[in-house]
Amino acid sequence: MRVLLGFARAVDGMNRRIGLVVMYGIFVLMAILLWSSISKTFFLPTIWTLEMAQFAMVAYYMLGGPYAMLTGANVRMDLFYGNWSLRRKATIDVITVLFLLFYLGVLLYGALGSTAYSLGYWGDAPIAFFTGLITGAEEVGRLEQSSTAWRPVIWPIKVIMICGLFLMLLQALSEMVKDIARALGQDLPEPKT
């Protein structure tokens, strides 16, 4: 159990550092939207601001999600849960995190497929495609571009989504390890709610 708790501490530390940096992304988003307003009012309107604001929001949301889970900032239905003991909460959380892990796994696999498509791969084995990219057996095809007038390539934001989902998966595993330890009666700090 000590090794698993070490894993949980490492994941928590990594997601805490990433979250503390990513939380300033809201200022990037505000700057993009401010420039959009200024350029529409005083200059020629820019075509890139709306889509860039969407990309910034996706990065903020996806990379900040694991930090929100770590700090307990996520929304929780507290009808019965609040009155339960810490061990009972931990037992129920171990069960419910299994559903979260499955859901995140499906999302991650879908994100891998979508990213492979945006890199010009039209097959049905995205993991084999990325393995082939690493070994040199596969090549990047025609890059997917947005259908807007700006027409940026889409793969960078999809890679950020993969990173965010992977970090969320790691944080869910960390939470599961801590909940198993609490359910077994180990004395850990109470999770933030």
TrEMBL record:
GO terms for cellular component: plasma membrane. The complex comprises the extracytoplasmic solute receptor protein and the two transmembrane proteins. Keywords: Cell inner membrane, Cell membrane, Membrane, Transmembrane, Transmembrane helix, Transport. Belongs to the TRAP transporter small permease family. It holds the Pfam family DctQ. The chain crosses the membrane at residues 21-38, 58-79, 91-112, 153-173. It is found in: Cell inner membrane. It is a multi-pass membrane protein. Part of the tripartite ATP-independent periplasmic (TRAP) transport system. This is TRAP transporter small permease protein. The keyword DNA damage does not apply.
